[in-house]
Amino acid sequence: RLAPRGAARRVAVVGAGYAGLSSAIELARAGCAVTVLEANRVPGGRARRVRYRGTALDNGQHVLLGAYHETLALLREVGVPASALQRHPLTLRIAGRFALAAPRLPAPLHLAAALAFAHGLDLRNRWAALRFALALERRRLAVAPGSTVAQLLAAHGQPGAVIERLWAPLCVSALNTPPARAAARVFANLLRDAFCSRRQESDLLIAPSHLSALLPDAAIEWLGERGADIRLATRVAAIEPERTGWRVVAPGATQRFDAVVCAVAPYQVAPLLGACRELHPLASRLETMAHEPIATVYLQYEAPVK
């Protein structure tokens, strides 16, 4: 259902979160005529700025690691300088209970040294964590299909203290999901990418400004310079199939496209695709996906906190 060969393909991208923006950028690079439709007034989805009592705050912090090559390449593509992210060696702290800091050694020695000198774990727990890390680095870690992170850690004899103070915080920070429900294969791949190739891959990348300044603002500007039609504060009501394309229905903005990228949350898909019987099975499966909110807590102090 795309335009004839040689014609500029008109593509709608519904949703201007990171997924929608990255899709729009790739489509624009491929020569498509792109229209981005976003219900909110500010692009960025779950990683954007919000205004509260005149102050710009981040709507959902996300951990970035040096191993996120595609994300970093996307930032470079839209002109975000490397200086927009501060690099820090991996550091984990639980006040009064646990502290781990990765030294500037080649991988995986930096992880081995960090575990060997971690505060808050006795010798037995350190060795258990190191044994797990070595199995990961040597690709001897058996990951059963469909298993959870909790099952993976139990299968490899990780003590409760190591899970609570090391693996669980890493899992929640990187996957936004607790070990009891997070996918073991995804977690294992993440750890391999971050800890088993180059030391820089495990660096924590911190955005000193708000999240909209990190990617969404630059992406919208980049797309606008290349002729993309950006429609913020435009809530799509339906995506309807036609014989040779799709009709996107929005208040005052109903329009026909050759293709549509639906980059919204899973629970928002079914209402949009009600007129497309072919996609009802997909929409039904998406509706059954479990989801939970990500809470962000803001603390304001009368004096600077170091």
What topology emerges from the helices and strands here?
Layout: E1 10-14, H1 18-29, E2 33-37, E3 48-52, E4 55-59, E5 64-65, H2 69-77, E6 86-88, E7 91-94, E8 98-101, H3 109-116, H4 123-137, H5 149-155, H6 160-175, H7 184-195, E9 204-206, H8 211-214, H9 216-225, E10 229-231, E11 238-241, E12 246-249, E13 255-257, E14 259-262, H10 269-272, H11 280-287
Parallel strand pairs: 1-2, 1-14, 2-10
Antiparallel strand pairs: 3-4, 5-9, 6-9, 7-8, 11-12, 12-13
Can you offer a commentary on this structure?
With 306 residues, the protein is α/β, with parallel strands linked by helices. The strands form 5 sheets. A 4-stranded parallel β-sheet has the order 10-2-1-14, with helices on one face. Strands 5-9-6 form a 3-stranded antiparallel β-sheet, with no helix packed on it. Strands 11-12-13 form a 3-stranded antiparallel β-sheet, with no helix packed on it.
Short structural summary:
The chain is 34% helix and 18% strand. It is α/β, with parallel strands linked by helices and 306 residues long. A four-stranded parallel sheet has the order 10-2-1-14, covered by helices on one side. A three-stranded antiparallel sheet has the order 5-9-6, with no helix packed on it.
Unreliably modeled segments: 1-7
N-to-C order of helices and strands: EHEEEEHEEEHHHHHEHHEEEEEHH
Backbone CA Rg: 22 Å
Helix content bin: 25-40%
Name the average pLDDT.
88
Structural class given helices, strands, pairing?
Answer: alpha/beta
Spatial strand order of the main sheet: 10-2-1-14
Number of helices: 11
Beta-strand content bin? 15-25%
Ends distance: 57 Å
What coarse outline follows from CA principal-axis ratios? globular
